[in-house]
Amino acid sequence: MFLNDDFLLTTEPARQLFHQHAKAMPIIDYHCHLDPREIYEDQPFTNLTAAWLYGDHYKWRLMRANGVPESHITGDASDYDKFLAWARTLPKAVGNPLYSWTHLELRRFFGVSELLNEDSAPAIWEQVNRKLAEPEFTRRGLIRSSRVKTICTTDDPADSLVYHKLLKEAEKDFSVFPTFRPDKALNIDAPGFPAWLNALEEAAGTPVTTYAELLETLRARVDFFHYHGCRLSDHALDVLRYRAGSAAEAQAVFAKRLEGAELSLEEITLYRTELLTALIGFYHDKGWTMQLHIHAYRNNNTPMFQKLGPDTGYDGINDLSITESLSKLLDRAECGSGLPKTILYSLNPGDYPALLALMGCYQKDTAGKMQLGSGWWYNDTRSGMRQQLTLLADNSLLGNFVGMLTDSRSFLSYTRHEYFRRVLCGLIGELVERGEAPDDMELLGQLVRDISYNNAAGYFGFPSAE
Length: 466
What we know:
- The chain has 20 helices and 9 strands.
- The chain has helices spanning 12-22, 36-41, 48-52, 57-65, 79-89, 97-110, 121-132, 139-145, 162-170, 183-186, 193-204, 211-227, 247-258, 265-286, 302-308, 323-335, 352-359, 382-395, 415-433, 441-460, and strands at 27-29, 148-152, 175-177, 232-237, 289-294, 296-297, 316-317, 341-346, 370-372.
- A 4-stranded parallel sheet has the order 4-5-8-9, covered by helices on one side.
- The longest helix is centred in the middle third of the chain and has 22 residues, at 265-286.
């Protein structure tokens, strides 16, 4: 039966593991794109489309694949018409995780068990909107009802973190910490780099006219973020290239950019390599975890990028080589102050074996210091999660995995943790059935509880756990 209590749990050990061990564990969402201002202001959603479809390029891509006009996706159609367009699309999405996620969200948050389609859409729209008008269905209410204990947002070094400060005082049921995301510092060739530099100067209260001043300012921002509970950094390394240089060479590139001159690929790569290496040292000194998100191929379809901008559903998977540049980067850090705890994600699952082999060269001191990140984006599926978990178990220690994250802009995405836990328990249950793992619920139950919550709680060292 669709989405019954045992969906994805095809063996008796899997059912025991999920219902007795995984299901009740709270959530640490250590990487997401929720807006801390929205969390703090805690406004109710105006309707289901606002909660469900605004900014969700996962759904947008499927709607486009179904021939839905852009007016009913990101355009000026009414919220109800956009919802109806999704309802018409969904029956064709059987087999896609969004089919399960959509109905999980309807059931877990709103008590709706009917299948969403064009016929059921009007009644579901009315029922869910009535729920959304109730006091407990605000942004923070949805977080609480999902048993979330910790959220890590994604924040630029120039951010004031004002809403994180306010949330620390206002919210006692869960914590919201920033994550240091310095992509704009590294993307020196981006058109907006000078404007971002001005914003950094304003936030830090200090001029940034040289590469040395940039390093000192970023170090100060790391200190500032750490004071406000940050324990993770994050980087989008869509293309990973390595070119070592000196501080003087990095300064020359920086000065050239400020003069408005065009930079060569070699100059850009040298600057990015040197700055990223320095940042890795900052993270190590603070005891942070570094996240590297690798191999997205962004902003395909030029007309739509010009119309809608980034993060609107026009990104793909990069298939460039990764091993040599990443190895040089990690090795240089290890030869210096040392690598921080590191999570490596790749949007290309073909990279997993190389990443796992390379990670094993730098494991030391901390259990699971080097982590293969959970199935990300296009791999955030049943088969993608199983592939990541299987290869992790094949090549490292599954029991040290820090588990799932939402990587989402939606307050309704926490059912993805349930989905992941069911996949995890299903996989382990199959190991038991094949005789590859013992039918020992004490052993395996602890493993599942650790991956679901305990490992992340211990690994990241958030202030609330210190």
